Every structure is written in structure tokens, then in C-alpha cells.
Amino acid sequence: MHDEAMPRGFGGFGAFVGLCAWGAWGLAGCGGRVARDDAAWSNNGGDGSSSRSGEGGAGNSRQLGAGGLDGEVVRTPPDEPPEFCSADGWCGASVDFVSLWGASETDVWVLAQVARDDGSEGGASALVHWDGRIWSTTELPATVVSSYVRLYSIWGAAADDIWTVGEAGTAVHFDAANWSNVETGITSTLRSVHGSGASDVWAVGDHGSIAHFDGAEWGAVPSPITSDLTAVWAVTERDAWAVGTQTQLHYDGDAWQEVTSTPRGIALHAIWGAAPDAIWAVGDKGTVVGWDATTWFFDPLIAVTDADLFGIWGTSRHDVWAVGTQGATLHRTDDGWTADPPVTAARLNAVWGIEGGSTWAVGNDSAAIVWDDGRWTNLR
Asked: SS3 of 82, please?
């Protein structure tokens, strides 16, 4: 991975100046003024050459939305779709939002990745935060994570207990004040992180890799497979699921075991559960499979799309959302699954929301949509 392979005008985290957003998530244009938080942050470890150790501050936060450098309020919506923009004018045609989690509607985190010009993997990730008023991008110091290490998933037990995982077994923790890199015992790429609480956190990834955090430290856990795992969901400390390339694994409190191969050999990309007997996983070609505490089955209500599905989330067994390619959005209610008309053509990678509140979905090419008042709105 070399600097010349980075996108034109990017050069790592330092070039980001913010996220231009409008609608329910903020109001500012890429050409507007940018407010930067120049408060000092501290680094207490590492020389930047390792992505596996070190302690860092909360990062260098660049804010965009409610005010400018001199405190004036920016109130004119952007003429162009909101995007990531860099300090030298590069804007986010190749910025993908890959994961989404929030503690509340005023505390939402999004992981963004920057694609290389040649389309290969590698390059920087950015953490983007919504505080109910403005978006801000956070630079993680090199002592916390190398700018070449991609992060793929974010989840938190609470607003002051957030994990994000990625390449080379990287796990980064946020305690509401500092970001720190924590050794996982894994060297493979970690694709997903989820837990049932602060002392029960799982991460899974390539080559069947599984790691567990017990509240004190991470450790590698024996895996029954060597194929890639793409997502994990923890129900309780003795009940967790992982899915991947034609497989589902279950943890019963003692060990991980393969339960069954995915029918018809379709890869699964995401998993979510409302209860131990109400788990759903989504994958290619509109696949939705469910777990009823006895067996995995094809959800008979899903014959509504052939899109590849990459994200799933819900509030109950009768309120489940799934998203995927070509802007696909599916909703499961008491009446079954329905597909809403797409409001974006982008691939959607993640969905998340608040019970009784809004639901968000994010995806490639800076795609961001919100479900509110019975309809999806494109925030671009």
C-alpha cells in the first residue's frame, strides 16, 4: 500500500474537512464555511508503524453543519448532493459508508471508506459522528491505527463503550474521551463486531477468525471453519450467531459449532435478532433466512426482491429492515415483507434506527437515506 495509490487529492485522514449534509441530518454546503475543533488531543504509545498497539486521544474533529469558523450560521442547502470533500477540492465520489451504529438519534457513528483509483482494497477509513446538530469527521492518530488500515464494522454497548474492527485483526475502542487500539490476538481481517454487553463482545472475519472480549481483554477463539465469516450477532453470553460464506455458526456458551450450510449455497452478509427464537440473516439474491430456535429456514415471505442484501436491523420480530444493492429497502411487519420504491441507486450496506423514531441506511458513494413519517428520504 503506497501513497501514490491513494485517491487524487486525498492523502489520508488529514485531507477530510467534513461531511456536507442536509435534511434531518444537518444543513450545510460543500462550499460553505467549516468549523474545526482545534482542541488538543494526546497520543501515549506506538510510533505509528504498528496498527496493533498504542493509546490515542479522541482524534482531530472537523465539524460541518450549524456554524462557520466565525460562528455564523450556514443555512443555505447545497446546490449539489452532499458528499465528503477534501481540503483541496476532492469530493467523495469514491467514499463508501460501510457500517452504522448509534446510542441515540443524537449520537450516531458511521464508518466511511475511501476507494483507491485502481479499485483495489486498502486506504483510509474515517469515523463520522452526528450529535443531533452537526456532522464531524474524526482523525484517529497513527499511534491508534494506521491510515492504511481499513475498518469494516462499528458497534457499541453504550455511548462510552464503542468498538470498531478491521484489517490485520485491528480493534479500536472509544470510551467517550479517547480512542485506543486493543490487541485482539487475531491477524486476519475482522469484518463484524457485536456483543450482548460490555463484557461479552465478539468479532469475526476472514478465514473463520473469531475473537472475544470478556471485559478485560480480547482473545482468539477456536473456530470450526476456515471459510470467511461476514457478520456476528450476540443474543446473550451463552447464545451468539455468526454467518458467512455458505455457513451459520452458533455459540452455546462453551464452543462454536457449525449448524448448517446455507440452502442453495448462497452467501450471507448480515445478521440480526429480536430474540433467541427470532434471528434473521440476509444475503445474495434477496435471500432472507430465519432461525426459530430449532432450524434455519427460508423466510417464506421474502419473494419481493432479487437484490443482494448487506444490512439488517429491527426493533422486534414484526419490525425488521433489510437493505442492499440498487437501493433496495425491505420491511417486515405483521403482514410480511414488502419492498419500498428505491430512493437511491447505490448499494446500501447498513441500516440502524431507534424504536419509535427514525431509521437510517447508508451505503456506497456516500449514500444516506432516512425513514421518517412513513417514507424514505434521500439525504444526498
From this structure: coil
The neighbouring-strand residues paired with 291 are 279, 296
Quickly tell me which residue has 456506497 as its cell: 364
Strand pairing report for 125-130 and 368-372: unpaired
* Across 136-165, average pLDDT: 89
Return the closest-CA partner of residue 340 out of 299, 371, 313. Answer: 371
CA distances from 188 to 46, 73, 170, 213 (A): 21, 46, 9, 16
Q: Are strands 218-220 and 60-64 parallel, antiparallel or unpaired?
A: unpaired
DSSP state of 246: T
Contact 325, 287 (CB under 8 A): no
Residue 56 has φ and ψ, to the nearest 5°, of -140, 170
> Distance (Å, rounded) from C-alpha 21 to C-alpha 134?
9
Instruction: Note whether 202 and 240 are within 8 A (CB).
Output: yes
pTM recorded for the entire structure: 0.78
* Cα–Cα separations (whole angstroms), residue 319 to 184, 326, 337, 371: 34, 22, 10, 13
CA distance 89 to 221: 45
Domain ranges of the chain: 3-378
Cβ neighbour number for residue 347 with a 10 Å cutoff: 20
Reference 155, options 116, 218, 210, 201; nearest CA is 201
Q: Name the residue with higher pLDDT: 352 or 105.
A: 352
- The C-alpha atoms of residue 106 and residue 369 are separated, in whole angstroms, by 16
CATH numeric code, 3-378: 2.130.10.10
